Please model this.
Amino acid sequence: MATNRRTFIKSVTAVGSAIGLAGVPRLALGQEAESEPVWTPKPVGKARVPLNILILGGTGFTGPEQVEYAIARGHRVTLFNRNKTRPGAFKGKVAEELVGDLNNDTTALQGKKFDVVIDNPTTAPAWVRNAAKHLAGNVKHYIFVSTTSTYSDQSIIGLNENSPTVVLREGIDPYSVDPQVIGGNYGGLKVLAEKEVQKQYPGIWTVIRPCLIVGPLDRTDRFTWWPARIDKGGEVLAPDKPDDPCQFIDSRDLAEWTVRVAEAQEFGLYNAIGPTHPMTVSEMLYGVKAGTTAGARFTWVPWDFLQEQKVRPWRDMTVWQPPYGRTAGYQRRDSRKSIAKGLTFRPLAVTAKDTLDWHKTRPEQEQLATLNGEINGIGLKREAEVLAAWHAKVKAGQ
Amino acid sequence: MSITRRDFLTGAANGTHLRAGSLAHERVGAPLNILILGGTGFTGPEQVEYATARGHRVTLFNRNRTRPDLFKGRVDQLIGDLNGDVESLKGHSFDVVIDNPTTAPAWVRNAAKHLAGHTKHYLFISTLSVYPNNTVTNRDESDGLTPLPEGLDPYTVPADQARRYYGALKTESEREVARQYPGINTIVRPGLIVGPLDKSDRFTYWPVRIDRGGEVLAPGNPDDPNQIIDSRDLAEWMIRLAEQRVLGTFNAVGPVISMWELLAGIKSVTTAGAQFTWVPADFLRANGVTPWRHMPTWMPPVPNAGFSTRNNARAVAAGLTFRPLSMTAKDTLDWHKTRPAEEQKSLADGAIAGIPATKEAEVIAAWKAKPQSAP
Model:
């Protein structure tokens, strides 16, 4: 047990110091000890055969977790990125850092060989093609992190890897690298990027489609809103019905499984969606609350009224999507295939606690932006207005 | 998990005592000379750990039967029995006495033979069971206490009847404390105490059951109230009450949360993916499922609306703080997995508290087979 804990703390501290977070040292008795983990993960262990891994990107959100885990498993890690996001974060830790840009300059990849490539950043097929100029024929396995946004019909309950995908709008050049084009056609371009991967690396590709990725380092606030909000206590606006379904994946679960997929050379197409068994939105919120002490109280407001108040699913009520109509299946997708191949999930308590602890290390301005709902999440002010309107309506109806 | 109970108790193995938010509280005043009556059961060991960690001198008085010599070398040990032989207390003086085990006023009187006049503060752990009426929500410490049944001599109640008169005898014990230690006493009335070391299974059932996954029978309405206190929160606060010499009477119980919050909060520390099936109180009753006994921590709000909604404002104002539920749940689960096989089996069989798996499945099946009438 002591070893597990030490390993865990060592690795967290390493990530922390590398990316400018506070470490999680063991504290002396009598000191504030809030950063102690609720849960001690299993020891990481070493891979049977060390791999020579190239990680494209690797410094954003999921990438750093891949790097940490791969190194802990005894692999040799090379990074290829612009050296712009957290420059030098893994200096001295990874075997090699190659600088370039998938969008235009990939010469640093020339002449290199790898057992496996993990492609995190690609959002357009041109990026795959650019890298493939040097990588095709020089790697034994190409893992592409895609997205469940590739699915065109989110009304399907139990949507799986065979469900229909988005077709890019006509008149758009899929190989355009115009950021405007890329930004506005996320799902369609990711589908074509997947196809490009299959074309460039026939028979040796893995495509992983994660749903909402959550956890420490996530600056989108799409899950972080809830721990940050609930930790403030008071009356919390909760979406629709407590029994509505919800799905998400902790970035560490995704990252670690991706590395294990590399080790096992699992080819093919996989959804990566948690948890294994259905979770309701109340279980998520109450689970988040269980890691806090501020005593948040939840007021569940029906979807009809949220619509009247222009409260948006996902953007304002993060994670949640209405389990009706065109989003009926959004939170009820099927991930049995990846689970059968070893995808596992941390307890929610760990995701919630680690996310909150990380959130508290963000610059004050970012934390404020979260509570103001500037990124995702409804924001305290608007939340109070909607709650007041709801209570007025309930009172009037009595 | 290979930790021993001793490791667990000393916090050496898993840092239990290191990660308590309440440890952020600074010690107030000089180190105290503390006598703990009992101290080896459930809450007592947490008091000992916390008190010694904060530099206090701790003396234990007990029969040395429950976990004998648990704290040998770390505390002074006096052997005796509050119910009989209290000679070893003679001639000692203490800053404060913490009385954990007393369930009858005679025990207080016996100890007072040697302690009255020799301690500056007497802290008595009573219980919320001193309140006989649980129909009204949010009642505070001024609520009425259990009257003594007519003809019962509280000083000579036979041991085999003590359980039956628990509330009345605790009430009488509080009064005895007030008589023996006027103006220097603190009465702490905890609600359901939960956490590691709790052998009553009255909370432990839920983490263990939920960790097993599958379909879990959940009692009553998901919004039914629930109120517990982690033994460590209680123990640590009592030491701080001693340090600050806070006198008076306090309800010591956690915030009111819903059963749904309780069960979902516990689920959050597990990965088995338990699914909850909520079955109304009347159906449970008709199927022989008893609140509290079979569905631990749950008391239907009809007619006991006040049972899990006790006002704790006074204790909170006096510094009582609460760990996150996830910590209580996780630590309890981890501890349970270190219990001897027969204790784990006893819980699985619902021998003390909780419902056996077979019975649980029967009730769920019966509920699902029942024709659902329109609401």
